[in-house]
Amino acid sequence: MTVDADGVDGPEVALVEDERNVRELYLDVLGAKGFHVVPLDSVAAAEAYLARHAPDVLLLDVKLGDGDGLVLLDKLRKQGLRTPVIVMTAFGTVDRAVQALRAGATDFLVKPFAHERLLSAVAAALEAGRRLVELELAAPTVAPSTEAGRALVGAGGGLRDVVALLPRVAASDATVLVRGESGTGKELVARAIHAASPRLDQPFVSLNCAALPPSLLESELFGFERGAFTGAHARHKGLIESAEGGTLFLDEIGDMSLEAQSRLLRVLQERELTRIGGREAVKVDIRVIAATHRDLDEMAASERFRADLLYRLAVIPIHLPPLRERAQDIPGLIEHFLAKHAAKQKLPAPRPDAETLRRASAWPWPGNVRELENFIERSVVLGRFDFDSLRLPPTPKLAPAPPPAPVETAEPATPEGASPVLTLRAAVAQAERAAVIAALQAAKGQKTAAARLLGVSYKTLFNKIHEHDIREELHIG
Question: How far, in Å, CA of 3 to CA of 186, rounded?
Answer without folding.
Answer: 35
